[in-house]
Request: fold
Amino acid sequence: MELKFLVGAIEAGRIRVTDHADEEMSADHLTLGDALHASVYGEVIEDYPTDTPYPSCLVFGQTAADEPVHCVWAYNENTEWAVLVTVYRPDPTRWIDWRLRRPR
Reply:
């Protein structure tokens, strides 16, 4: 998925936040502003084109305070709405440079 579509939806206010994403943000002491900033200035690090009901992707970005954040977004091409599926602070034991999963 191209980040420009997500950024366009975010900038136009065409987003929905799942309850799961809201709960995870709260658990990790993140705000919606943190997630949006990380997504707008971030990069797609994994693509999930076969996800349903919409293709999704994992975005790595940083908060305005330079803290790493992962956001999973789904995008509906027909309506041009983005859905924030989950948000979390990546575990350094599971990620290399926040972008590549460590082998198990």
Remarks:
- Residues 19 and 85 are 8 Å apart (CA to CA).
- The mean pLDDT is 97.
